[in-house]
Amino acid sequence: MTRKVWVILMGEFEVARFERAGDVRRMSVAREGGGIVLREDLSGPSTLIAYGDKERSLRIFLKPAALDALIERIGFSGGEGSLWDFLTRERYDLADLMDLCDRTGIPYVFTGMGDRSGLQFRPARADCRRIAYH
Fold first, then answer.
1. Would you call 36 helix, strand, or coil by DSSP?
2. CA 18 to CA 92: how far, in whole Å?
3. How many beta carbons lie within 10 A of that of residue 128, not counting itself?
4. Which of 59, 73, 74, 108 has the fewest CB atoms within 10 Å of its CB?
5. Cα separation of 24 and 11, whole Å?
6. What Rg do the C-alpha atoms of the chain give, in angstroms?
7. 7: buried, middle or exposed (CB in 10 Å: 19+, 13-18, 0-12)?
8. What is the DSSP letter of 67?
9. pLDDT at residue 1, rounded to an integer
10. Do 28 and 12 touch, CB atoms closer than 8 A?
11. What is the phi/psi pair of residue 32, to 5°?
12. Contacts of 99 (CB under 8 A, 6+ apart)
C-alpha cells in the first residue's frame, strides 16, 4: 500500500482546508528530499494569539521507513485514527500526529516557521533511529 501512495505523490497536494471565525487551517502532503512532508498552514486571529504570527507553517518530514512504520501502525485510510483521518478531520492537527509518533517511536523531523516567531527545528529523536532513519 505504501508504494502506491509513494508513486502517486508528485508535488504538493492540499488534502483538507478548515475555516472558522477568520481562522484558516490547511493540511497538505508533498514528496520532498527522499521522504514525505505532512504540512499544516495556519492563519487568522487564533494563530496571532497563540504564536504571535499572522501565518505559521508546521511540517513533519518522514523518511520512507518511518512512513511505512506509521502506516503499518495506524493504516493509511478507511478507519478512525488512520493517517488519512489525521490529515482530513478538523479535530486532529499535526501536533496529534507528532504525539502519536513520539509514543510509538516513529522518527520524524519537525519544522515550525512563522513570520514573527522565526524558525523552530527539531531533528529526529536519537532513540527512534531503530527504524533505519539515516
1. strand
2. 11
3. 17
4. 73
5. 22
6. 15
7. exposed
8. H
9. 33
10. yes
11. -155, 135
12. none
**What is the Cα–Cα distance from 129 to 65, expressed in whole angstroms?**
10
Percent of the chain clearing pLDDT 70 (strictly above): 86
Q: Among 40, 36, 29, which residue's Cα sits nearest to residue 90?
A: 40
Q: Could you give the CA distance from residue 85 to residue 14 in angstroms, rounded to a whole number?
A: 14
CA distance 39 to 28: 5
The pLDDT score that the predictor gives to residue 100 is: 92
Structure confidence by residue, pLDDT tens digits, 40-88: 999 999 999 999 999 999 999 999 999 999 999 888 877 777 888 888 8
Amino acid at 63: K
How many other CB atoms are found less than 10 A from the CB of residue 89?
A: 16
Sign for the pseudo-dihedral over CA of 72, 16, 24, 32: positive
φ/ψ (deg, to 5) at 115: -70, -25
DSSP string for 11-31? SEEEEEEEEETTEEEEEEEEE
Mean pLDDT for 88-94 is: 91
